[in-house]
Amino acid sequence: AQKITQTQPGMFVQEKEAVTLDCTYDTSDPSYGLFWYKQPSSGEMIFLIYQGSYDQQNATEGRYSLNFQKARKSANLVISASQLGDSAMYFCAMREGSMNTGFQKLVFGTGTRLLVSP
Amino acid sequence: NAGVTQTPKFRVLKTGQSMTLLCAQDMNHEYMYWYRQDPGMGLRLIHYSVGEGTTAKGEVPDGYNVSRLKKQNFLLGLESAAPSQTSVYFCASSYERRSVSETQYFGPGTRLLVL
Predict the structure, then answer these.
(1) Which residue in chain B is spatially nearest to A55 when comparing CA positions?
(2) Which parts of chain B have pLDDT scores under 70?
């Protein structure tokens, strides 16, 4: 089963508008972390935001916020006031917290390509 | 402070040739990782290392070998390249802390084309 599902291959948004990128996850581990990365056309992977499963509040980092709905197992990224420079691929990723393995793998979704138009 | 660097940035190989991708980090991170990124598949873990002298298999290790002789370097080797190994390869590193919040920092990637 897919651990991380990003159902939107592509999204369009106009400059200055807000956009939500969807991410659902599958885990039975009570301890896990959720990450969003941005990959611009230049190719590098840029860390944007993190949400822990025990965090009481939704994570925010500047114009990025994470809409964390634990019961629905969703961790959607919200970008407010979109800018042209936000055009990129966005990846959702999860790390489960099982201490038994001693190593916690980061699992990525397939990504959503966001295009911001003027 | 360069972060994570990768060499080379781009390479073309013929089937059967060998090559080594070099990853270096200057953040004193214990953990290092090699991923491959293919269209429509996100990033998949090839191998990883939890410290100098250690390596372990990830999700898609076949056809690759790795070595971590120095803490700051993590090498990915292809002994006999195949067209299926055409991909973008990313190296990443992180601190040792066994925490779900531990962030991985990525290098700029290496584009490999195997003809």
Answers:
(1) B101
(2) 1, 96-98
